[in-house]
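Hi Y.,

Following your request, here is the sequence exactly as I used it, all 586 residues.
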Amino acid sequence: MSDFIYTRKRMKEQVLSQYVTSIYEGDSPFVMEYHGEWGSLAVSRSHYAGFEPYETEKYICIVIGGPVLCYEENKHLAFSKNNEGTSSIFHRWKKGEFQPEEDVSGPFVLFIMDKETYEMTCMTDLMSFIPVYVYQEKENVMLSTHVDVLAKASDQSEQIDEVSQVDFVLYGAVTYPYTNYINIKQIAPASIHEVKGSNFHVTPYWIPKEENKYHSLADAAKELRKGLESYVNAITDHTDNVAQFLSGGEDSRVISALLAHKKNRNAYIFLEEMNREGEIAEKAAKAYDANLKVVTHNKMRYLTMLPNCSELVGSGAQYFHVHTYGIHKECQFEKYTAVFGGLLADALLKGSHIRKLKGTHLVPFFPHIKRGNYSASESISHPVFKKEVLVDLQKRRTEHLNYVKEFRTESAEEWFELWPSSMNVNISNIHGNRRLFSSYEPFTAKDVVKLSAKVSQSWKLNRRLFHKAVKPYLKPTQWLFHGEGKLPYYPWYINSFVQASIWSVREIEKKVNKNAKYQGPWFDWNSILSSKEWKETVSQYSDGLSVLEKQLNETDLQQLFQTNQLNFVQKINLLQMLYVNHTNKK
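Below is the corresponding structure, written out as tokens. Let me know if you'd prefer a different format.
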């Protein structure tokens, strides 16, 4: 299923359904409702085969997402609409044999309601790839996988948490467990949540403790390959109807290699126009025997999709990572049993959330060296926002960092941005895609997540672990350059020399030709932020600024967007926040 909302207090029929469908522009999924003395539940149908709701005389069981079953074959994937996967999990749980950390892999939420005792059980996945939110008032408890749906149903849409909004503008995420709403919080990842009467019990079933379980880099790399292949094969063994995303990078080449046994599969790349990134993808597709589909889009698409994608992923998540929105209909992604992506390889395996020495990101061929004096809880100062709100924000960040430090010491700063996954700004890609089609991300597999928690940061830096694991997959494109000018088949110390020369030439070309076309993937934000359409959109949602006026040093909207006090990503975050506040006023 895609989303659910549960309330211990019984609601009128169709009320919850209206809230769930409100996150879609149109073509919303069918919503099933259940009501009884135990309360009310609404569940929207998803694209994942095998996970329709399962109901008995005593229980209702729903599964959000499309997890891979690790204790049996995933034969349910061969059928378009069935509840075999849900039923299998339920009966394993009923017998007391279900172990969420071992039995299912990938994003999921398990929700079980006992209609006789009114007891509710909700399990979150290892990283809360699919977050769940809670609202409690007296004896009523409400849960949902969509924060804005929960806010509407609990009449909390106007109870805005201004500290969270400042947090989102500055960092692109809201510090766990807070949300955009004062009285709504995110529940814990990798935990079993039980409601008995008015009591809410939380039991963690897995914690990403910092402990290196591998004797060597080679052992860890072998385990990583095994985990990726196991996850992909569990899906593809039961369906030939698969597709993938492909780019000029290395992560999608790994996915291509894992899917190479599936002949005549389509691979998709999204570009403003055919460019260097697309040309590299064409060569990669040929090497891995895939049919590349180059999809071009309007240069302003990432601006015009702001309202629809903001609603889809929910406030507190960056909307623009849902690259497929709109295009998903053109490409008919819903017809595929599985569409594979390469998200989170950087975050979990390459140390993208490890803070490096300052300036390293400006020169990509420099070796990655961990910055030792960084803290996520350090004092925050910013010319746009008042000191008082920044102090409150710092307290929240310190609180979360201290929580992570309880089970991680060396890598607390890295996992501050990973645990739960809502702290990772890119995660809304999963939030959006899973609501549009059967999206599968192999780097969310349980074996990959657990391995990421067990290896040292030194193995992640400079692609050491990743390269050791995936080098065999990269052999077909040994001499094909990455979009950034390196050769993924080779280790970092060789690429430092290779990439340096290519990067230098390209930088000179940029300075000589200011009007050169954009050569990267997805979109060019520079052209969007300098457009008249951008200015018109800012003006359209300008009344949303009133919610934050008390927290601002500068209340002139044009000044906020025209000066360099906010970087370009923060300006995008601010515009999205203006839209959210503008909508909540209606």
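The CA atoms of residues 116 and 373 lie 55 Å apart.

Thanks again,
Q.
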